Amino acid sequence: FKKQFTSLHLKHFSVYQLLTDLKQQRKESGKTKQSSGQQNLNTIMYETLKYISKTPCRYQSPEIVREFLAAMKDHKLTKAEKLQLLNHRPVTAVEIQLVSTSAWACQTELGAALTLDRAE
C-alpha cells in the first residue's frame, strides 16, 4: 500500500527529535566502519542538526507543541501558517505578518499582540 504525498510539512521539533535520537543510537551501536553513502548521510544529519539546533525547536517539547496548536485553534490560520509560527516563533507583529499576511490583514494590532503572546 503506497501513499502519495503532494506536500509534507514537518515541524522543526520533529526533525530535531528524530535526528538526535538517530545520533544517540549510532553512538550506542559503536559501529565504526561506514560506507560512503553512510558517510554522506552522516554529513547531511550533522548539517541539519547544526542548523536546526539554532532554532527555537531546541527548547520545545511535545507538550509545548500541543499547547501552541490548541491556542491557535480559534484563529483562522492554515496548517502551513501554524507550522511557520511554531518553527520560527516570531516575536514582533511585523514578523507575524510576514508569516501570515492574509490572516492578519483584517485583524487589529491588539489581535496580533494577543496571538504574539501565545506564540512565545
UniProtKB/TrEMBL annotation:
BP terms from Gene Ontology: transcription initiation at RNA polymerase III promoter
Topological relation to the membrane, as annotated: Peripheral membrane protein
Entry keyword annotation includes Transcription: yes
Residues in RNA polymerase Rpb4/RPC9 core domain copies: 1-117
GO molecular function, one term: nucleotide binding
Subcellular location: Cell membrane; Nucleus
Keyword tags: Cell membrane, DNA-directed RNA polymerase, Membrane, Nucleus, Transcription
Function of the molecule: Accessory protein for the calcitonin gene-related peptide (CGRP) receptor. It modulates CGRP responsiveness in a variety of tissues. DNA-dependent RNA polymerase catalyzes the transcription of DNA into RNA using the four ribonucleoside triphosphates as substrates. Specific peripheric component of RNA polymerase III (Pol III) which synthesizes small non-coding RNAs including 5S rRNA, snRNAs, tRNAs and miRNAs from at least 500 distinct genomic loci. With POLR3H/RPC8 forms a mobile stalk that protrudes from Pol III core and functions primarily in transcription initiation. Pol III plays a key role in sensing and limiting infection by intracellular bacteria and DNA viruses.
Assembly information from the UniProt record: Component of the RNA polymerase III complex consisting of 17 subunits: a ten-subunit horseshoe-shaped catalytic core composed of POLR3A/RPC1, POLR3B/RPC2, POLR1C/RPAC1, POLR1D/RPAC2, POLR3K/RPC10, POLR2E/RPABC1, POLR2F/RPABC2, POLR2H/RPABC3, POLR2K/RPABC4 and POLR2L/RPABC5; a mobile stalk composed of two subunits POLR3H/RPC8 and CRCP/RPC9, protruding from the core and functioning primarily in transcription initiation; and additional subunits homologous to general transcription factors of the RNA polymerase II machinery, POLR3C/RPC3-POLR3F/RPC6-POLR3G/RPC7 heterotrimer required for transcription initiation and POLR3D/RPC4-POLR3E/RPC5 heterodimer involved in both transcription initiation and termination.
Family of this protein: Belongs to the eukaryotic RPC9 RNA polymerase subunit family.
Name of this chain's protein: DNA-directed RNA polymerase III subunit RPC9
